[in-house]
Design brief:
By secondary structure, this protein is of the alpha+beta class. It is 30% helix and 30% strand. It has ten helices and 15 strands. The protein has helices spanning 3-13, 21-28, 32-44, 68-72, 93-102, 147-150, 152-169, 224-227, 241-258, 266-271, and strands spanning 18-19, 49-52, 56-59, 83-90, 109-116, 134-141, 174-176, 180-183, 186-198, 203-214, 278-284, 287-296, 302-305, 311-314, 318-326. The strands form three sheets. A seven-stranded mixed beta sheet has the order 4-5-6-10-9-8-7, sandwiched between helices. It is elongated and about 80 Å long. The relative contact order is 0.12. The structure holds biotin. Residues 92-94, 116, 119-122, 125, 127, 136-138, 190-192, 210-212 line the site of biotin. Biotin (BTN) binds next to helix 5, strand 6, strand 9 and strand 10.
């Protein structure tokens, strides 16, 4: 850790309390002048740090800026091996981690951004990622899985995110096949998994799992095209929620990930599926299949019963739900 990161870690440990420059210098084995420079660099990054005469430095208790420490210190179990980097702004955390994966970055590399200026969604769409309102996080995975099992990365992540949102916000979550998370009928999270395939080995070189959660309401609300379909999980701004959510997701995801071949995620995935029993249309390229979603099978395919009684197994595609689509 750099001196700046160590100073931040110390201030975060004692958030809201004053910590003397002398004490910090002793803990990080640096001069008081080096500590002072680190404090100024942190302020330049946006951290609200007050200095009180004779008492020292106080990191505001309301501080909700991500730091790698604020997430890493909450990691447990298999997720403890993750190396988290937090940045203020990036085009897309997925794009950046794909570049790092190509350069050899290891399994468990995590990037979190305070904002994305070119956040990306599925099917070439953009993902609205304004500053300080959401969790924009990507993870490099180097799976020792065959291609079929690798497809479960996204479904595993959907379960981990759904559970983590409930733990942090208390809101009930549902999964809209394949990987959107909904609260009270509105989308609160999207997941984009991108992979580089190893044709000869029959598996993946790496996957980048990207997760975007709307945590707080953006200051000027959601843009018009999203206002009817998107929601945020927390009504009030509470410090530390973003770091807790990031850690809760990683803790759960890496636990499920260890049992991915045994489909450890599956019963929770099916239980939370919001489409079962609904009238749906699955769109795959130019093809449209309409019917009732009757199940999600063990390959995480959506089972759609057409009006002629035949079954269609969707392994990818986009689902639209008919209004008032519940089937008696
Ligand atoms: C979707 O709903 O279509 C998927 C949205 C995925 C958004 C996340 S935010 C973090 C990561 N970086 C990106 O550019 N996209 C994903």
């Amino acid at each position: 850790m750099t001196i700046k990161e160590q100073v931040l870690a110390l201030l975060e440990e004692r958030k809201g309390e004053s910590v003397s420059g002398e004490y910090i210098a002793g803990r990080v084995f640096a001069s008081r002048n080096a500590v002072w420079k680190a404090i100024n660099a942190l302020r330049a990054d946006g951290y609200s740090i007050d200095a009180t005469t004779n008492k020292g430095y106080i990191l505001s208790a309301d501080s909700d800026i991500f730091s790698s420490y604020s997430v890493e210190s909450r990691l447990r179990g298999a997720a403890e091996k993750c190396a988290v980097t937090a940045v203020n702004s990036v085009g897309s955390t997925n794009t950046e981690l794909k570049r790092q994966a190509e350069d050899g970055a290891p399994h468990g590399t995590v990037l979190i951004a305070n904002e994305q200026t070119a956040g990306r969604g599925r099917l070439g769409r953009s993902f609205y990622s304004p500053e300080e309102t959401g969790l924009y996080m990507s993870v490099i995975l180097r799976p020792r899985l065959d291609m079929r099992e690798s497809l479960f990365i996204t479904t595993t992540a959907a379960v981990a995110v759904a559970e983590a949102i409930e733990a942090v916000s208390g809101r009930k979550t549902e999964i809209k096949w394949v990987n959107d998370i909904y609260c009270d009928g509105k989308k609160v999270c999207g997941i984009l998994t991108e992979a580089s395939v190893d044709y000869e080995g029959g598996g993946l070189n790496y996957a980048v799992l990207g997760i975007g959660v709307n945590i707080f309401r953006p200051e000027s609300g959601f843009p018009d095209e999203l206002s009817d379909i998107a929601d945020n999980i927390c009504a009030d701004r509470t410090a530390g929620v973003r770091a807790s959510l990031a850690a809760e997701i990683l803790n759960r995801f890496f636990t499920y990930y260890e049992g991915i071949s045994e489909r450890s995620f599956f019963s929770e995935y099916r239980r939370r599926s919001m489409l079962i029993g609904k009238n749906v249309t699955v769109v795959r390229g130019n093809e449209e299949i309409t019917g009732v979603a009757v199940d999600v099978d063990e390959e995480a395919r959506l089972v759609v019963k057409r009006t002629d009684g035949s079954l269609y197994l969707a392994s990818s595609g986009e689902v639209t739900l008919k209004k008032g689509g519940a089937v008696k």
